[in-house]
Specification:
- With about 300 residues, this protein is an alpha+beta fold.
- It has two domains: about 180 residues, 2-Layer Sandwich (D-Amino Acid Oxidase, Chain A, domain 2), CATH 3.30.9; about 80 residues, no CATH class.
- About 25% of the residues lie in helices and about 20% in strands.
- The protein has seven helices and twelve strands.
- Strands 1, 2, 3, 4, 6, 7, 8, 9 and 10 form a nine-stranded mixed beta sheet that branches. Strands 5-12-11 form a three-stranded mixed beta sheet, covered by helices on one side.
- Helix 2 crosses helix 7.
- The relative contact order is 0.17.
Amino acid sequence: MPHSATRVSAGLINPFIGPKLNIPEDFSACMSANQHFFKNFERKVGRNFLESIELYRVLQSLNQKRKWNDLSHEYKKGYLSKEEALKFGIISEFGVGITASWKLNSSNFINCSREVLRSNGNYLEEGFDPEKWRNHQVIFCEGFRVNSNKWFMNLPLSPAQGEVLTVNSNYRVNASNGTWHLAEKGTSLAKIGSTWKHENLESGPTCSARQEILNKLEFLPDLKNSPVVLHESGVRSSTRDRHPLIGLHSEMQNYYLFNGFGSRGCTTIPLCAKELTDFIIDGANLPRNKNLHRFPSN
């Protein structure tokens, strides 16, 4: 689908979010669901999609360095001083926090999933006809294009475009200061990004975003001379409160929504998929912060 965020995503799954290095309270549950799902899927297809990595978190202030030093968590793997970080080509006055993270090859996973569904006769390419599917359970997974879905378009959506570059890079590290550099194993390539904007969502790649990404990655100074191999953009299906939107339509009792994952889709989708299928099949309760009916008008 044009402008799909998942297709251009670098697939970074990082436990420590934002400048405060907070861990989302559902992160461990998300990773358990991720590892369970991908372990089974990878075994069936004989390919790997979810990769464990070490992410070098570039600390940007003395307060952030203190926050890192005070952390006590299984995802915290160590610390590199300014001098030690420089050995990896990273310029960081306050050092680097080594983080246990993951990288999902989301584009290859989507392609493989489609191949599996086609081989089982379970993949159709056609427009949605409500009459054809009136006696079936229908789950809408349209990404940001849900804003054109007449049954769910009034939800508080806040889609955001992001741009990603693929570059030839001399750096073989996975590093981030909020903007990230993810080296692709076995190649000289790396993905770098990303940007965030709420207007002109389908504008495609822009020169301004390219420069913004390179400027923010100043901790890897040689990148400014790295050839850009590919420049892509996609639109995240974000929501105003930054939580997913899943659940059943209030009137159409066979219409469900699975949407609103924003920049955390690679982290949260397997768990949310289990929660929605448990709701549909077993009548389990949906988490209140994800249920689309948390908003009174829906």
